[in-house]
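pinning this so it doesn't scroll away 📌
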Amino acid sequence: MKNSKVFILCFVTAVLLLEIKTCFAEDQPTNQITEKSLLALAEKGDVKSQKMLGMGYWDGELGATANHKEAIKWFLKAAQNGDSEAKSLAARVYLSDSDFENGAKLLKEAAEAGDLTAQTDLGSLYLKGVGVTKDEAEGIKWTQKAAEKGDSTAQYNLGVSYRDGIGVEKDQKKADEWFAKAKKTLETTK
């Protein structure tokens, strides 16, 4: 009985190895298979695959050739299918391509939907006047929302705002409190 189990295990392992070898044959590079399989799932509406494909097109990983238009397309499909972070990722692609207007528009939508990173980034855009009309009060509003929900970058940015008097009155005590919160947040997430 024990020998038959060993035989079956060896047989299954050999079959799997043969299938893997076939999948990764020289005429089918690993990166193309990854892109093709993700594309097939993404086209069927698989949200995780849509987002992963967007990431692949954004940075050229997962076998996809870097293509920012395709990245945005797949991030937006994932967002339409319920992935709350995907719209924020599409915004970052726009921003990385210096399309600040579209990037800011999508960040605002993502921030309004509750995405913390989008709230932090939108706050920074308003504080600097990038892609939007400079509005320090609006920048502080978004930064504060994200900071209060525990985003360490927003907490740090709020500390800088209080230290330097950007959008708020200078207040070193509040600045130190926000810097301490940012430090604590980072230490607890390690």
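📌 and the second one:
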Amino acid sequence: MAEQTNPNKRKNGGNGTKLGNFLRSINFSDVAEVVGNVATGNIKGALEVLSNSEELSEAQMKLALQELEYDMVEMQEVTKRLETDNEHTITRLVRPVTYGLMFIIFMFMALFDGNMGSFTINKMYINPIESLFTTMTVFYFGSRGLEKMMKTFKK
């Protein structure tokens, strides 16, 4: 896609929607309004802007509606996938299981490495133990706290 001179018609990162990309490619003046309506779920508003426009030919209008349909299907599929991901127990257990397994494996290695006679923890294990478990603890509990805060803010 060629670089647009009007900053309001330029895509700000990401792939964009099929409808938005099509409308930008033909220099449609109300791209932001149409895509904004689509993004917020106001399909009726997007259709209204498109149908009231005198800029689009009949062929362009058909193509715009087809692209809108593709975008709607894509949004529905993404929503289905996100709902499915949240239903499975395994997706909720990734962090705690990883944390627990790392702890067990590393502690097993540290405790049984060369400890056949007297018990000592090799000094080479102390720094990795500190950094690994500090990092894992901060990320595990920090991300859990962040998730709970986001749920609270959404309500």
